[in-house]
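Morning - phosphoenolpyruvate inputs below, output right after.
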Amino acid sequence: MEYRQGTAVSPGIAIGPALVLDTEGVLISRRTVPPEQVDTEIVRLGRALDETAAAARNDRERITVRLGPALGNIYAAQQSMLEDRVVRMQIEARIRAENFSAEYAVSRVIRDFVKRLEDSGQRLGDHVAAEARRRVTEFIDVERQLLAALLGHPTNPCSNLTESVVVLANDLMPSDTADFGPRNVRAFVTESGGPTSHTAILAGALEIPAVVGIGRFLSDVSGGDTVIVDGGEGVLIIDPDEATLARYEEKRARLLARPDRYEHLRDKPSVTRDDVPVPIRLFGNIELSQEAAHCLDRGAEGVGLYRTEFLYLNKSSHPTEEEHYAAYSSVLTTLGPDRPVVIRTLDLGADKFSSVSGAVSGEKNPFLGLRSVRLCLRNLDLFKTQLRAILRAAQHGDLRVMFPMISNIEELRQCKTLLNEVKEDLEYAGIPFKREVAVGTMIEVPSAALMADVLAREVDFFSIGTNDLIQYTLAADRNNEHVANLYNPTDPAVLRLIHTVVQAAQKEQGRRQEHGRRPFEVNVCGEMSGEPLYIPLLVGLGLRQLSATPRKIPEIKRVIRELRVAEAEEVARNALSMETASQVSSYLRDHLRKILPSEAVD
Ligand code: PEP
Ligand code: MG
């Protein structure tokens, strides 16, 4: 039994057979075969070994001619592994002794080699460890090639499952998780990734238990091994013993039997406990149009963030204008005429659908590269197609449009100019649309936060994207578990930026009030606004709108209904005067314990 701790990103307990995906998405399934099929498996194995060795030989010759023998030798090492009689004999032995399928025997034998190499690397120090790591990579690559040969190069590992599994992977792209659903995937666990990675966000939205950022573990597990995932605690248990299995079966049953704890608050107002209660408006974040209904189920007042780039899930080409239009119209129709729906324009690139045409592949620093609105402004057809659909769909409800990743005012002005151009095009073509659509910008780059007073004059609302604001402020990749200790919503630098933005928004509110104009609004739509711990702080900083994964809304409402604004303001003042993230976090924990004395606060 092996016990691993990672970051909890989507709660729930799952117990089931593992499906190990390597980075190329090769499926490794545990399978035994009837005794009469053993010879066939040996023949399949021989064929796959020969085919793969021939390919490695071919690559070696090609690369040696083009790039010299040093690089050609990488393939020579793989070729010799594939031609190694000991390797072949060991795999054959597992097939004969245990009736394993060729795929499973390959996976088992290679992963045993890998495990031994890793152990010897750890025992014998840095120099050996580096060499061991190199050999491990070669072995994993050989395994992947062999499995691809045996399986006929499957493309979609989750589409042909006959039983539901726990998916284990180094990392998953959002498009991988798109095929996941309770029918085929019970949970997933990744070696890398952080709590605000898009994969994690999607897991929360699909309500599949998930743990990310566990560090290396794939060499300790084979497809078919039983695993337990505790998505609430961030735990993975490989090959559990009977007592552990029974304990988690029981915990799982208990959780399933428990109704949503705060379901009863669904139709209660989201107001503070002040003598004159202050309303805090709660909205839902969605990735897929189907989730609009989740917002209503959880009592949201509207959609605060629709991440439209998820229209690219499972698509090899750009969505058409009609596809955009249909998705937006469906969300607006579900929400009805009076609930706002904030549609964010495409935030492609970095870790989201970075392979779409128009994106630059192989950028060294994709999070600082041609991402989001920068990409759209270089691909005007793509951008205009979406804007046309947005303006047309706006006829069906209270649609608001929002631009992501704005880093200076010129970018924002370019986006607005383009929006106006699209309106003129639609007008000229006689296509019905809504002209008066509120326009907002995300504040998720420190430069935008610092210039919030200037940006505020140009838009109707702000939405603070704390996921990116934190990573860009602290120079800590939101998906990298090695810097997860730096990526901290309570870092005083982050708090000061949020404070700056809210102050700029409040000043703009005052200015507009004087002129009798529509009030300026400011919202937070990063994962921070879905965490009870941060709610008093955000309210105290002056926020009156929050947008979070629908599942989180009842819990947030519960905290709001225990708050008094004056106390929350004191919390924010004290937090702003602190020097470190850990001081702020423990202060917030103490405060939450005080206002929710009957609940466990961790
Ligand atoms: C954010 O950055 O906080 C945000 C809401 O946008 P995304 O997570 O989609 O980058
Ligand atoms: Mg963002």
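Note: The CA atoms of residues 413 and 458 lie 8 Å apart.

O.
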